[in-house]
Amino acid sequence: MQRILTALILALLPTLAVAGLDKPLMSGAKVAFLGVTFIDLSTEGAYNGVRADEAARLELLEGAARDRFAAEGFVILSSDPVAADLANTVNPANCNGCDVRMAARLGADYVLVGEVRKISNLILSISLVLRDVRSGEMLRGLAVDIRSNTNDSWLRGLRYILKNHFFKT
């Protein structure tokens, strides 16, 4: 009997871990959005550097994320007080907790960071993570692969993350 119970618990652990990411978010909470980092892993990027259309797409994505959080009743804080630290951080989504520390300095309840990883013009990945500033715990986080390097595909990927994971109803 004990073996069956242990096997059942072990089988359900992944489900319980994912269920923890569905905790309700505080309405009206303050969010420190530290932006979305573009990581170009393609050969094209290695040879040609930053493309203007991709830089514009990144701003489009960030604006869409801000707009959706504001529409859901969250307060997006200005990151100006930590601008120098943010400028010296290569990737706030992968900086050993510097995102949480910067958000705490801003007085935020949550910190939001993201990444776009370009493998090629056909294959890209978008990820978004929301953490609780007090505990550092990840409350929401999802990555999706998208096909094609266009405004529509980037926005479709972000909307999927927000609709189906962050603000699912």
Characterization of the model:
- Strands 2-1-3-4-5 form a five-stranded mixed sheet.
- The protein is globular.
- It contains six helices and five strands, in the order αβααβααβββα.
- By secondary structure, it is an alpha/beta fold.
- 44% of the residues lie in helices and 25% in strands.
- A hairpin with a 5-residue loop joins strand 4 and strand 5 (138-147).
- The model is unreliable at 13-19 (pLDDT under 50).
Strand content: 25-35%
Q: How much is the average pLDDT? A: 88
Helix content: 40-55%
Pattern of helices and strands? HEHHEHHEEEH
What is Rg? 18 Å
Helical segment tally?
Answer: 6
Set out the fold topology:
Blueprint lengths: L1 H18 L10 E11 L2 H6 L3 H20 L3 E3 L5 H5 L10 H9 L3 E9 L4 E10 L5 E10 L3 H16 L3
Parallel strand pairs: 1-2, 1-3
Antiparallel strand pairs: 3-4, 4-5
Helix pairs in contact: 3-6
Please give a quick description of this structure:
It is built from 6 helices and 5 strands, in the order H-E-H-H-E-H-H-E-E-E-H.
